[in-house]
Amino acid sequence: MRPYITGIHHITAIAGDAQKNIDFYTGILGLRLVKKTINFDAPDVYHFYFGDELGRPGTVFTTFPFQGARRGTKGTGELTYTAFSIGKDSLEFWMERLKRYKVAISDVLTRFGEKLIRFEDHDGMGIELVANDKDDRLGWTYGQIPAEHSIKGFYGATLNLRAKELTEQLLTRHMDYKYIGQEGDRYRYGTEGKPGDIVDIVLDKTGNRGMQSAGTVHHIAFRTANTQSQLAIQEILMQNGYHVTEVKDRNYFKSIYFREPGGVLFEIATDEPGFAIDEEEAHLGELLKLPEWAEPSRKRIEAALVPITLNPEKYA
Predict the structure, then answer these.
(1) Which residues does the UniProt record annotate as the domain VOC (predicted)?
(2) At 203, is the secondary structure helix, strand, or coil?
(3) Can you name the residues that pair with 8 across neighbouring β-strands?
(4) Which of 75, 153, 242, 260 shows the greatest Cβ crowding within 10 Å of its Cβ?
(5) pLDDT(1) > 90
(6) Cis before residue 273, ω within 30 degrees of 0?
(7) How many CA atoms lie within 13 A of 54 on its CB side?
(8) Of 37, 59, 56, which is closest to residue 48 (Cα–Cα)?
(9) What is the pLDDT of residues 264-283, one digit of tens each?
(10) CB atoms within 10 A of CB 74
(11) Which value, to the nearest 10 degrees, does the dihedral of the CA atoms of residues 34, 39, 45, 49 take?
């Protein structure tokens, strides 16, 4: 039964240096490293999953850190800014914290009545923090960030496109999204219109295409409950002319992929089974976890990966 899509599942970006990536997202932003594994399609590259305590869908930002990768460029056909949700009274805390660690931030912006700041990580990845009172999710903290100011999960994502009509049709006709409103060249959509399901399209009719590399988003994944609902939405998309992949087993969820009309790679991922299937909840992210097919090559894989350390406390 519909809705088949209930919001954002995860967002995956390309990064450069693995240690800097760990330090920024666990140390400065305070997200929990819930899984340390490999890129299933490039086993000599890490795949890091950062999120809340359990890596619940709607909180997980993931990265493929390619050592030495050159910086990409933002442009059309890309997800250019990932927005995280914070408490309504947390903006000043984050402005001071980011300045302390010499992260350049924007002035306070207002969008659809809510205050936010915009900045980039060390690779140029576009990030926003949106202060709001609509989000009752509990954030995660290693202790260096007060719980009341911790990041709660995603707020939403911005797609930078040359045209919006076909992408809008995809979202509203087939993916259970609804049109919410417009501010200038920004058009907003949501399943319920709450933090964790917001997708904005920014219309940039004459913009240059982005170049995907470090500091750019590889794909955005949308949530669906289980394999049954995933197969149902897969069938709907194929019937309407979208070129959808077969179901891929990513261990912690199952996935299908396709390109939306503006060029952004979309994934639909299941909420089940989650990240606690191969580690205890208290020890998520501590060990390098490999899919069963990669275990025979563990020694070779570990030798190819650069060593990393998890030390968020140094960013207290």
Answers:
(1) 7-132, 153-271
(2) strand
(3) 222
(4) 153
(5) no
(6) yes
(7) 12
(8) 37
(9) 999 999 999 999 999 999 99
(10) 20
(11) -20
- Three-state DSSP state, 5: coil
| 250 close to 188: Cβ distance less than 8 angstroms | no
Q: Tell how many helices (H) and how many strands (E) occur in the chain.
A: 5, 16
Query: What's the token pair of residue 103?
Result: 């992260």
Quickly list DSSP for 115-157.
EEEEEE-TT--EEEEEEESS-------SSSS-GGGS--EEEEE
Q: How far apart are CA 138 and CA 232, in angstroms?
A: 31
Distance CA 216, CA 11 (A): 11
Kindly tell me the sign of the dihedral angle through the C-alpha atoms of 169, 174, 175, 176: positive
Q: How many whole angstroms from its chain centre is CA 218?
A: 9
Give the 3-state secondary structure of residue 92. helix
Whether the predicted pLDDT of 313 surpasses 90? no
Tokens of 245: 């992949």
How far, in Å, CA of 299 to CA of 304, rounded? Answer: 9
Task: Tell the residue number behind the tokens 């219309």, with chain if given.
Answer: 203
Quote the CA–CA distance of 154 and 126 in Å, as a whole number: 13
- The torsion angles phi and psi of 87, rounded to 5 degrees, stand at -65, 160
Angle at 49 between CA 45 and CA 53, to 5 degrees: 155
Total length of the chain: 316
Q: Which two tokens stand for residue 315?
A: 């960013």
CA distance 304 to 287: 16
Establish how many alpha carbons lie within 13 A of residue 264's alpha carbon, considering only the half-sphere containing its beta carbon. Answer: 36
What is the average per-residue pLDDT within 188-195?
A: 97
